[in-house]
Design a protein that fits this description.
With 108 residues, the chain is an alpha+beta fold. It has three helices and four strands, in the order ββαββαα. It has one domain. 43% of the residues lie in helices and 21% in strands. A four-stranded antiparallel beta sheet has the order 2-1-3-4. The protein is globular, with a radius of gyration of 14 Å. The chain starts with 5 loop residues before the first strand and ends with a helix. The model has no long low-confidence stretch (mean pLDDT 93).
Length: 108
Amino acid sequence: MEEERVILAVSNGYNKKYYLNEDFEGLPQQVKDEIKITSVLYTEDIGGIFTIGFEENGDLFLEVEVDENDLLFDDIGSGLKIKQMQQEKQELWEALETYFRVFYLGEE
């Protein structure tokens, strides 16, 4: 059985679009703004399609998809940027996991 993942936000560097899952409209505006800024800056700096979401158990994930014809995409830079974001935004990611577990999964 395949695990259900829940997408929080996606920034597409190819068509310059950003999406926030409407299930998370209840997040404080400052948090939504920080998610958007982080996502869009990633795709502006690195490229690809950047996704923030949650695993079935509530763990947050950050991942990037790349068009196979995107010769300018920097795999090493992408990995370094994600690692940097995980460290610099650790408090945000932990707060989002808590929010998801409480309000989405119904955990206490």
